[in-house]
């Protein structure tokens, strides 16, 4: 009825390498040695069947990932800066409801919220993404061999940029990024054997 998992981790890097922009050739990147870094954190997840037709689930993780004091990137000291693309926390929370309609056929609905903490885009920590959250929903019918479901992802059309790279003077902000997926919805069907 209940399953729980917990993790504690510590990673210690020496001679960490990063993909850095070439300031003399926009759009090109090179691999550079930056120095040392460390990443420590905890993760916890819980899955529970609180009723024969109700499952709840969730998880949370916290990470502290920084460059060591003597780290240098492109000639600039980055010691103490946060490692790029490392959110300080991630979390999820959800529920799934199901009901048997007939022998071998069930109706189900699922809702989940995903939370991502703030993170830096670059090693100099000059630009970052604020914390954001996404909501996803799905509902369908599942038989012994087939299923049909409707779904919606990023239901509230949250605007976020999960990936961005330094791009120098060729971009107004100095960065070029990729927008996160907007609200999407659809119908899926499948056959299993």
What does this structure look like?
With 193 residues, the protein is mostly beta strands. It is elongated and about 70 Å long. It starts with a strand and ends with a strand. It has strands at residues 2-21, 29-51, 54-67, 72-73, 76-77, 89-102, 105-116, 119-120, 128-129, 132-142, 146-153, 163-166, 175-178, 184-191. The strands form 4 sheets. The protein has an 8-stranded antiparallel beta sheet with strand order 1-2-3-6-7-10-11-14, with no helix packed on it. A two-stranded antiparallel ribbon has the order 4-5.
State the main characteristics.
193 residues; mainly beta; 8-stranded antiparallel β-sheet; two-stranded antiparallel sheet; elongated
Quick rundown:
The chain is an all-beta fold and 193 residues long. The protein has strands at 2-21, 29-51, 54-67, 72-73, 76-77, 89-102, 105-116, 119-120, 128-129, 132-142, 146-153, 163-166, 175-178, 184-191. A hairpin with a 7-residue loop joins strand 1 and strand 2 (29-51).
Count of runs of 4 or more consecutive helical residues: 0
- Report how far the terminal alpha carbons are from each other: 27 Å
Rounded average pLDDT: 92
Summarize the main sheet.
8 strands, antiparallel
Low-confidence stretches: none
The ordered string of helix (H) and strand (E) elements is: EEEEEEEEEEEEEE
């Amino acid at each position: 009825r209940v399953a729980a998992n917990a993790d504690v981790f510590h990673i210690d890097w020496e001679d960490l390498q990063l993909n850095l922009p070439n300031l003399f050739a926009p759009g090109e990147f090179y691999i550079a040695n930056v120095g040392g870094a460390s990443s420590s954190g905890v993760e916890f997840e819980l899955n529970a069947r609180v009723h024969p037709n109700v499952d709840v689930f969730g998880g949370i993780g916290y990470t502290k990932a920084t460059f060591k004091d003597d780290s240098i990137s492109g000639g600039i000291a980055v010691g103490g800066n946060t490692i790029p693309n490392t959110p300080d926390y991630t979390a999820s929370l959800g529920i799934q409801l199901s009901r048997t309609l007939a022998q071998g056929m069930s109706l189900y609905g699922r809702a989940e919220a995903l939370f991502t903490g703030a993170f830096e885009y670059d090693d100099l920590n000059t630009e970052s993404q604020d914390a954001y959250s996404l909501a996803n929903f799905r509902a369908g019918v599942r038989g012994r061999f087939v299923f049909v479901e409707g779904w919606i992802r990023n239901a509230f059309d949250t605007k976020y940029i999960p990936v961005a790279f330094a791009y120098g003077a060729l971009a107004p902000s100095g960065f070029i990024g990729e927008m996160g997926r907007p609200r999407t919805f659809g119908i899926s069907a499948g056959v299993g054997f």
